[in-house]
């Protein structure tokens, strides 16, 4: 289970010595109150750590340097309680390697009409102190999130919550390792990409292991370990009759359990946060990992099929961002369409590997033939997904840059049962409508693989793209094709020149 409460966001307040020690003591007390309030708020998923007020270039440089070196610091919230001349911040901002949120707030919510005087004004001057600070970050072309509002307002707290989750997902990528069993699915373009460019840009590495390395680990799994996991399957899911002990395909269930145990052991031994495989490279395996991939995703690992390491990494990041939230995130594929003019929608699924975190009820564990791969029939979990707001996200290698493409959707309950479809599935309607949404996705070069999320919003992904310094293309209720085409042209010019 993923938890991010142990991760820290540092609350740094800027001022200057011009105001004297008494004012600086008030600044420190106010900052500590705000940081403590945010830290105790149930919506803030990380630990907010108050840091001493900075008033000189040396202090600013030192705290930024300290933030870079602190393993659990995933970001910085900066607030100018008073006026903090922004040239003091240049050195610190130049070296800061953590995401930054500029909180444009003030300690008091209301103007104290009957008592306000110049002492009050000198202390509470965020209204122009933050503008000075904001100019410097704009002048330095620094990516950041700006939240404007009172520190007790629900809207401000929610925006900090969203940014902190994006920062946690980004932090998780730094130094992360993903394993690719075998190569990319033959001749497929969009699942390929520049792994060196990705490591430079995103901070995670992707390395390939032969399937024989995994088969060796699977072969070391004991019968007692298999017994224990098979019992867990029986307790957690509704098993098809043929998979029950004594059933004609019970051996296949044991084979699936052995694969899951061996796969998890391999990931743990190599400190991997996710993996990808392909049905074109299964030498020595009895069946394609189905239930194994589904359950490992549910434990927090990233996964994507057919060698798609970019989506596997994105699934992991989105699971970290969503830690503790109701609903799930899963590897997904746009599989087939329902083009009824009165009810157009997409059926999303994959051959086997959809995460049970998005299931709307207790999954059924079944076994069915798979007409690809030439191996034994694989075991998988079958279920429907709950209706409600959702999104699909995909990272695309554009050659000269990476693009994060997001489509907001609304999931719907199936109109009919699908008794002959032996895979997990979800139905959704893309925004703004089927025609525009699908056309926009194609024009933007969107992959057929995505991470499907029930609990993240496009703002989470926008903050993530801002932190990563990559292009974001959003398809939502307001998207029109002329506007999108212009945006893609402008982005090509803008990002192409960077």
Please summarize what this structure is.
The chain has 498 residues and is α/β, with parallel strands linked by helices.
Distance between the termini: 39 Å
Query: Main β-sheet, in a few words?
Result: 6 strands, antiparallel, barrel
**What is the multimeric organization of the chains shown?**
single chain
| Contiguous runs where pLDDT drops below 50 for at least 5 residues | none
Alpha plus pi helix count: 15
Strand content: 15-25%
Could you say which overall geometry the principal axes of the C-alpha atoms support?
elongated
Overview of the molecule:
By secondary structure, the chain is of the alpha/beta class. It has 15 helices and 19 strands. The strands form four sheets. The protein has a six-stranded antiparallel beta barrel. The longest helix is centred in the first third of the chain and has 20 residues, at 21-40. The two termini are 39 Å apart.
Features:
elongated, 498 residues, 5-stranded parallel β-sheet, 6-stranded antiparallel barrel, 19 strands, single chain, alpha/beta
Topology:
Blueprint (H helix, E strand, L loop, with lengths): L7 E7 L6 H20 L6 E4 L6 H13 L3 E8 L9 H6 L4 E5 L13 H6 L2 H14 L5 E4 L5 H20 L3 E5 L13 H8 L2 E5 L1 H9 L3 H14 L1 E2 L10 H20 L4 E4 L13 H8 L3 E4 L3 H13 L7 E10 L6 E5 L14 E4 L11 E4 L5 E10 L4 E11 L12 E6 L3 H10 L5 E5 L4 H11 L2 E5 L5 H16 L2
Parallel strand pairs: 1-2, 1-3, 3-4, 4-5, 6-7, 6-9, 8-13, 9-10, 16-19
Antiparallel strand pairs: 11-12, 11-18, 12-17, 13-14, 15-16, 15-18, 16-17
Helix pairs in contact: 6-12, 6-14, 8-10, 9-10, 10-11
